[in-house]
Amino acid sequence: MSFSRRMFLTVSGVAAAAFAAPATSAAAGQAALPFRDPRLPLERRIADLLGRLTLPEKISWLHQYQPAVPRLGIALFKTGTEALHGLAWSTDITSTPEPGAVRTATATVFPQAVGLGSTWDPDLLRRVGTVVGEELRGHHSANPVVWGLNAWAPVVNLLRDPRWGRNEEGYAEDPYLTGVLSTAYARGMRGDHPHHLRTAPTLKHYLANNNEIRRDRTSSNLRPRVKHEYDEPAFRPAIENNAATGVMAAYNLVNGRPMTAHADHDEVVRSWTDQTLLNVTDAGGPNNLVGSQAYYATRAQGDAATLRAGLDSFTVDNTDAGPTVEAINAALAAGLLTESDVDTAVEHILSIRFRLGEFDPDGGPYAGITMDVVDRPEHRALAREVAGKAVVLLKNDGALPLSAGLGEVAVVGPLADTLYTDWYSGRMPYQVTPRAGIAARLAGGTVTGGEAVDRIALRSADTGGYVTAGAGEQGAELTATAPDAGDAEHFDVFGWGQGVLTLRAVANGRYVERADFGATSAFVNRAPQPRDWFVHQQFAFEDAGDGTVVVRYAGYETVNDWEGPNNYLTVEAGGRIVLGSPDSAGAARFTREVVTSGTDLAVAAAARADAAVVVVGSMPFINGREDHDRTTTALAETQSALVRAVHAANPNTVVVVENSYPTTLTWEQEHVPAIVWTSHAGQETGNALADVLFGAVNPAGRLTQTWYRRDEDLPDILDYDIIKNAHTYQYFTGEALYPFGHGLSYTAFRHARLRAESTVGPQATVRVSVEVTNTGDVAGEEVVQLYSHQRVSRDPMPRLTLRAFARVALEPGRRRTVRLEFPAAALGHWDVTRRRWVVEDATHDLLVGASSTDLRQRTTLRVRGETIPPRDLSRSTRAIDFDDYAGVDLVDTSKERGEAVAASAGAWVSFADAALDGPRAFTARVAREQAGEATVEVRLGGPDGRLAGTATVPATGDRYTYVTVTAGLRGARGRHDVYLVFTGDLRLDTFTLR
């Protein structure tokens, strides 16, 4: 679920009583009804209950908060409990004084999803999903109104671009790996019962959601090959294997059509399974259709389109079902919907509710799970195991593992003493920080150091007084009145990159934040950590040019950041500090006095220690997050400087990077002897890091994304065409800092004797075996990775594609034959000439190794497939089925169906290897919204090639109003690459040459 509002909700238009559970006597009175009889077939039970509901009751159930039906003994059901890497949060419609406030669960917090992905261990993820499902059931048993069993997890959007603000939520940039891991996690949440569900996992966010900038207005351009070969395969496995029970629609548009009203939900996603799915909108998605997207004129039109597209539950208007009910009624009255459309959606909803055991007299096989299951010792042990297995050893020149007999270890850095949670995290039942974990592991030694941040005092140039914070958990409004600087006037400064910092008051250990939403708000030290939808704890110091600084408020206020009248801090006459100036010229000036230098203290500790561990990384609510993409993957400037200073003081320095995305660690890779990466890994972070640093756990985590050397290696974040822009490990031709699949070990592994069939048909299973030997002195785990590459094809093919993998544990000197397999059909790709999958007759390289660049064994495989024939453009051809393009957008042909090419002057699309038999005419279905004419030129061999004909496109007055145009052709005979070149704005749907 996603929010773009203040984190409190209100019940409006729906009485709280409507959500209440039915009285026991009412439920007992309905016990004999057929829908409550578990001996009957599910279809009959659903039909019986559906037939008992009135039309108003059915319509009311289309909203996220499905009200109780007391006359049938039916309680409230709501979709949406967040459970991405542990049970996280839900909304409480009964809470006071703010009904609908977010309720965060205290539950086991596992590593972020990107960290779970780095384990490359589906069995482990299934165990994690099982714990998450059990703990959700436990909380549900205590409060079913808050903790609904429809869980919105996992996120399976591909990590195509590491700058995505929600990178932490996905598993990998590879669709196969993502599909395997998401299926495992969802299967654990769902449970193994053949008919009943422990919870109902919902995959987020279908489809192609990998940017936050203007996320509800941008369109992800997916040419057919990218859509079918890259984005869809990430979602399909969990649905196809009946591990997930539905999908959530993404905010974005795909090829010009909002996913909130995209027929793919019905026509594609439901085609992957014979089980019934419950599909939901993302929060506010229906309102976007008539708001930011302006796609439909009324909610009635938008909601009707959403329902017809295969979405069953409307997550919109907080807890207020009124607008949805009104819109659906209006759509029915206008003939945009029929009651059968409503019935279909309610049947989908009921299928999940029945399978969750709601209407069974005993509540089903999972009803006995209670709160006793939450935070069990075995769950704590699993959290530690997973966090350890997720750690990736990026570099090691012999500095690791550390000896437990070291006399002194300096542990320094801004993340050394803190564990941060993210937006989709629960509340940790306990916390083991990196320092605490290392101290517990270091037998008889001493751990020194600190957070390595500057402690400062700020003195107002106007009043002469020092800025003072308050004591106690709620702190106090900041004032600039103190004559001297004691603890109450001291602040610790944490730098998060690009000038953004947070201020933690020494007076109470709380962070300074904006006090309210007013244009001239005061500031108060009361935040336990920077967090919430609007992150009001962010500041920046700017040099005023006279030895003083001004302070800019850098917090998030709206989806486009703070857009209020004032951005800078000022000091009122009484000394109160407020948000009082729109620019630096009117801002208050402060003298920044350094009480203690964090770097100096860190250097002193490191210089006298046997080893130094520098813990750096990100703050999940600041360094990119939901609604905010990163503009750089660089380590924060202050943190990079800290690493360099500590390394200069002690060459035996280990850098621990704790963040949620690839980072450009080029200097560190060149100079620091050992680098370890982990995601924000939950309650057991410190123990897990210590286990790895001291060798109790031999690291075997592997990267699930390409780590690029520089920001310049990345395309525009809105460019989704990984084929043309040559990105992700599949197509990237540059030199990565760390490649996909990379990760080191404290031991070494030899791969030998790769064996595979020499020739197979397209329906066969490809079976591969390789011998893996632990040639080192300690036990360890190797992640054996199998890739393929098709040597020759009609179409551009990936450099490598992951086909199978296995995480294998071996004692020193032991050898094991690892067997991997995949269907030969997986070697196919989408043939745009015939709009179907094709396995070509081709030779494939099969490569096995420890990463996508560390490939140690290879063989070849011949596949007896087919040859793609020359294009036949005499048949109606979709313009979007091009082979190459320049300057075009992909758009919707109509609001309901079809995809077209939108072009402007100078743009072109090409259709390779067309067999032309001397066609006489070019015919095209086109639209032009603008006044005047444009043309489509038919050229052969290139965009500047021989002109065969020109069609004139008249103004049609609307982007969805199409006409057919024709042009005579000359000299179009033989095998040619056909180019359609545009001289003005238009849309091209289909065309023929005959």
TrEMBL record:
GO molecular function, one term: beta-glucosidase activity
Family matches, as SUPFAM superfamilies: (Trans)glycosidases (SSF51445), Beta-D-glucan exohydrolase, C-terminal domain (SSF52279), Galactose-binding domain-like (SSF49785)
Keyword Hydrolase listed: yes
Xref: PROSITE patterns: CBM6, TAT
Annotated CBM6 domain residues: 875-994
UniProt cross-references to InterPro entries, sorted A to Z: BXL (IPR044993), CBM6 (IPR005084), Cellulose-bd_IV (IPR006584), Fn3-like (IPR026891), Galactose-bd-like_sf (IPR008979), GH (IPR017853), Glyco_hydro_3_C (IPR002772), Glyco_hydro_3_C_sf (IPR036881)
Pfam families: CBM_6, Fn3-like, Glyco_hydro_3, Glyco_hydro_3_C
Keyword terms, alphabetized: Hydrolase, Signal
Signal peptide: 1-20
Single GO BP term: arabinan catabolic process
Top-level lineage group: Bacteria
Function, as annotated: Catalyzes the hydrolysis of a non-reducing terminal alpha-L-arabinopyranosidic linkage in ginsenoside Rb2 (alpha-L-arabinopyranosyl-(1->6)-alpha-D-glucopyranosyl) to release alpha-D-glucopyranosyl (Rd). It is not able to hydrolyze alpha-L-arabinofuranosyl-(1->6)-alpha-D-glucopyranosyl (Rc).
Family: Belongs to the glycosyl hydrolase 3 family.
Name the UniProt record assigns to this protein: Exo-alpha-(1->6)-L-arabinopyranosidase
Source organism: Actinophytocola xinjiangensis
